[in-house]
Amino acid sequence: MWQVSPAIIKRTKENRYRFLGKVGRVKSFTSIAVSPSGLKNRAPYLVGIVDFGKEKATLPLADVEQDEVKIGMKVVGVMRRMLEPGKDEIIVYGVKCVPTGK
Amino acid sequence: MENNGFEKKINGNGKLDIRILGVGQTRFGELWGASLIDLAVEASREAIRDSGTSIKEIDAVVVGNMLGSHLDNQSHLGALVTAGLGIKASGVRVEGACASGGLAIATGIEKLISGTARKVLVVGAEKMTDYSTDFSTQALMGASDGDEQLAGITFPGLYALVTRAYMEEYGVADSELASIPVKNHMHGSLNPKAHFRFTIDVEQVLKSPCIASPIKLLDCSPISDGAAAVVLGLGKRRGGRNVRIIGFGQGNDEVGLASRRSLIEFGASKEASKKAFSMAGVEPKDIDVMEVHDCFSIGEVLALEDMGFSRKGEGWVIAGNGECKLGGRRPVNTSGGLKACGHPISATGVKQLVELTRQLRGVNGSRQVEGARIGLAHNVGGVGGTAIVHILESGI
Lengths: 102, 396
Hints:
The structure holds two protein chains of two kinds.
Chain A: H1 6-11, H2 13-16, E1 23-32, E2 45-51, E3 56-61, E4 74-83, E5 92-99
Chain B: H1 6-10, E1 18-25, H2 36-51, E2 60-64, H3 68-71, H4 77-85, E3 90-94, H5 100-114, E4 119-126, H6 133-140, H7 146-150, H8 155-170, H9 174-177, H10 179-188, H11 202-207, E5 210-212, E6 215-216, E7 226-233, E8 242-252, H12 267-280, E9 289-291, H13 297-306, H14 315-320, H15 337-341, H16 345-361, E10 374-381, E11 386-395
Parallel strand pairs in B: 2-3, 2-4, 9-10
Antiparallel strand pairs in B: 1-7, 1-8, 4-7, 5-6, 8-11, 10-11
Helix pairs in contact in B: 2-4, 5-16
């Protein structure tokens, strides 16, 4: 997924944004210490499984430290940069989840 | 599951009876002097020699491999291996992520049952150490779905999500799970072909660096090179005790962990084992020795629970209390498992049958389980997208 073509980026756009603005609860999470080549400079970063009711999804967690994350915590989907530009200089945006009181 | 009629073609008793005529395995480890094809050929030649069959009698070769096209840019492995062996047999590659080896075995069985082949060589091979860890980490994400890859989850990360959910649900500490790699390293220290032949203790596991919390380095099977091979046929093996495959079953599930009903069980393992037990006509209590998919410590726990060897939430108890250790009630992963024997991805599923065959022939030396008669191999692809189970029996 690291050198995604513009065609793939366009085709998956709707899918990438489907949790934008949606509120869900964290079912599990992990802090990735050893990252793949494409995300080498980002580690450590948090990823969780978030339950939105009708559907669960695996999404990065942002704006939060590992010791602040609790299973059952409420989070909301926000638009964030997912992948850095590749050779074609396209930045891929998508959804990450941040803590919410609501 | 009913006898579909196909078993009657194999054996007059109406039961599956696939003979394991020969087994072979390379050392697992960082084998920089050997290419993917070198490894496949080495294991294959050993299995063919062990079978006492002439290489010319092999009419089909099934190659299990996951990363050859990604890491080595080799996408024609069936033909590459038959050419490497210098034989005229048909060759095909089978893939199912980390279950590629087990699926290759099942494919070999299916060729025999269909009557299109009389002697099948199945070889699982993987070459992983030519490249950096983070390049392999990236390649291994191919076992997950698109959403998971976009989230940057990594393969250990997926199992970390399962581990944390399990620990939370059943109140299990990571020190309990740490006894599993300790046990498997003890077994591996007895295996000259294992990647790691040193013992470890719980404290070392807990102090090892975090890979994806709560999974630590010593909870993770390594990145290894290696190959394992078996020769399968319908007739008897000349000399020595015969070992037969009497049942097998495959299950599949959503690849994406988030799409599952539960994060802490693998429906694919449940389905695969149910089918295998039914075909073999045996139950968990009949199994004397097992090789299960401990890609990460939690993998062994779920294997025991999903296949009915323990109650839900208690797999970690028997995995750590000595029952599953050599000398215990039902030894698990006497090869050292994926953790200590190593995990050249597609070699694993075939290696499991190599180890079980040695157990059931009574030739496994210091790793021998006395009186082992029925064995089970459990091989999983990804974080439970695929599972394949084989049941073996020693016989005349």
